[in-house]
Amino acid sequence: MTTVVLDIIERLLLAASHPDIVKVERYGPNAGPWGPSAKSPGMDKLRVSGVKVTHQSLATASLWDAIWPGEQPVDPPAVLPAPKGNRAPRLAILAFHLLEVAQPAQFKAWRLVTLPNVGNPETQEGMPFGLSILTVDGGRTLLRASATGAPQTEPEEDPFPGWTPDHSALLAALA
User: Most C-beta atoms within 10 A of its C-beta, which of 11, 55, 76, 111?
Assistant: First the structure.
């Protein structure tokens, strides 16, 4: 089911055409989740599967198939956090909002989650670093959000505060 979940997330991110995202790409072999409690020989990170976005600043953020014990649901923040230092939670929040608009038939429910020992608790308490998805067949997938820094200066404020996705483009991406 991970392949279906990642396919839908990738299609929605592409269809959204967010002005700060310059590239969306899939990676990994869809071999199953990875994380601190994954039962795999050597915990080979090369088997991690996910969707990665590249921003105008060349920072990247990914949502990847994970096992991460201790997830806790969290409400989406009223205002997106600034891009600088928050690329991972921003991607989780964006994906959540895209799912809210598109309402994929393959998914029964989705929620943002915090994950223990992820993020900086001094500045990111309660910030979502994952997206938990329940599929209609009863399967559950956790997509962990992570990010890399930017070689260019990151904005201190959201450069596109009024942006909203084209609803018809999102629905067409799932047709």
Answer: 55
